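Notes from the 1:1 (GR / supervisor)

We went over the backlog. Supervisor wanted to see one worked example end to end before approving the batch request, so GR pasted a single chain during the call. The sequence is below; no edits were made to it. Supervisor asked that the structure be written out right there so they could see what the output format looks like.
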Amino acid sequence: MSADRDELRELVEQLPEDQVPTALADVRRHLAEARGRSWPPAFFRAGRSGRGDVAARAEEILDEGFGRPA
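Structure output shown during the call:
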């Protein structure tokens, strides 16, 4: 377990009982936002060519017009 997670647990234990619902709602909101994001983002696949040498061919690919408006 990470030190940050340990600290979070300790801080939660110190919360006054009347503040727990608000903190819990915030944590749930952050978790929902994180779950809603896919990884990797769709743009990561923008350069998929089926070949492993995309980086080596970057200049050639750009010369062919990749990324330019149609």
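Supervisor's comment: The chain has a mean pLDDT of 82.
Batch request approved.
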